[in-house]
Amino acid sequence: MNTWGDFENVQPIVAKMLENSIKKNRISHAYLFQGPKGTGKKESSFLLAKSFFCKYLEGFNPCNECRDCKRIESGNHPDVHPIQPDGQSIKKEQITHLQKEFTYTGMESNQKVYIIEHADTMTANAANQLLKFLEEPKRSTMAILLTENGQSILNTIRSRCQTMSFKALNTKQLESRLVASGISEPISKFSAALTNDFEEAERISQDDWFAKGRTIVIKLIQVLMEGNDEAFLFLHNDWLPHFKDKDQSQIGLDLLLIWYRDYVSYLIERKDTIIYIDEKEKFEKYTFSLSRDQATKALKKILEAKNKLKANVNPTLVMEELVLQIQR
Question: Per its UniProt entry, which superkingdom is the organism in (predicted)?
Answer without folding.
Answer: Bacteria
